[in-house]
Amino acid sequence: MNDFFMILFKAVVFLVSFAIISRVVLRFMQRRNPSAKLWDIEIIAVSAVFSVIVTSMVKHIFKIFI
């Protein structure tokens, strides 16, 4: 049961960080290219990579304190 909650926690952290990071990356890309959309592959790729990094950091910090 503990593994289930850890997987659920990582999924929630990934989705929340992906949503936040994709909005930030979209704003940055729209300054350079006003026609940039949220579903552009560059925005999705950068958001996914940074979300994985954030999820890993949060998981390790969570394991240190608990």
Features:
single chain; 66 residues; mainly alpha; 0% strand; elongated
Question: How would you describe this structure to a colleague?
Answer:
- The structure is a single chain.
- With 66 residues, the chain is mainly alpha-helical.
- The protein has one domain.
- The protein contains two helices and no strands.
- Helix 1 packs antiparallel against helix 2.
- The radius of gyration is 14 Å and the shape is elongated.
- The relative contact order is 0.16.
C-alpha-based Rg, rounded: 14 Å
| % residues in beta strands | under 5%
Low-confidence stretches: none
Q: Which structural class is indicated by helix and strand composition?
A: mainly alpha
Q: How many distinct helices?
A: 2
Q: What is the helix content?
A: over 70%
Arithmetic mean of pLDDT: 85
Domain unit count: 1
Distance between the termini: 16 Å
Outline type? elongated
Query: Using DSSP, what is the number of strands?
Result: 0
Main pleated sheet = none
H/E order of the elements? HH
